[in-house]
Amino acid sequence: MTKKDVPPRWDRRMQQRLARGEAAALGELYDRFASLVHGLAHRVLGDERAADAITRDVFAHVWQHPDTYDPKQCPLRTWLAALTHRLAVQRLRTTETAALARGGPGTTEDLERKVRHASVAARADYIVQSMPTPLRAALELAYFQRRDYRQTAVDLGVTDDEARRRLRLGLQLLSTAHDAEAPDTPPGIGGAA
């Protein structure tokens, strides 16, 4: 295994601690990633209670099956995001299919469109949360505060060229949210890592 292939030490240690059944490890993992998990679940489901339930389900799965995470495959953050996405999409499909079966509005095509839209939105959120702070700060200034690249450069204390570079890279990363091959592709897969 080359140096580049070695998983981050924290991820390896956390997986080992969870495999040993250390409750403190689960608490530490929850403190670090609960907001990410809840945010992604809420983005897919659009429902606070459902997002709370998915968050509980994700961390229960981690506690009961710590061996399903392999630090050599991907970072723990990405694995948790993919697990969250999978469980949230399953719940969305189940609840929406049940609503259709009860004669609710819409069609199965509407359901698939809703799943695709929620998946892209969740991947975009994950990308923004995961991108380096300088890129995220530039995008936030440009998007939320309607700054152009010159104003962004002044606000960040960088050159115009550096502001353009950060905005371009941030937008390139964000554009990968649509690169998934299928609607079930989780955040972190299909270019959204």
From TrEMBL:
InterPro entries: RNA_pol_sigma-70-like, RNA_pol_sigma-70_dom, RNA_pol_sigma70_r2, RNA_pol_sigma_r2, RNA_pol_sigma_r3/r4-like, WH-like_DNA-bd_sf. Gene3D superfamilies: 1.10.1740.10, Winged helix-like DNA-binding domain superfamily/Winged helix DNA-binding domain (1.10.10.10). SUPFAM superfamilies: Sigma2 domain of RNA polymerase sigma factors, Sigma3 and sigma4 domains of RNA polymerase sigma factors. Belongs to the sigma-70 factor family. ECF subfamily. Residues 29-94 form the RNA polymerase sigma-70 region domain. This is Sigma-70 family RNA polymerase sigma factor. It holds the Pfam family Sigma70_r2. The keyword Magnesium does not apply. It comes from the Bacteria. Keywords: Sigma factor, Transcription, Transcription regulation.
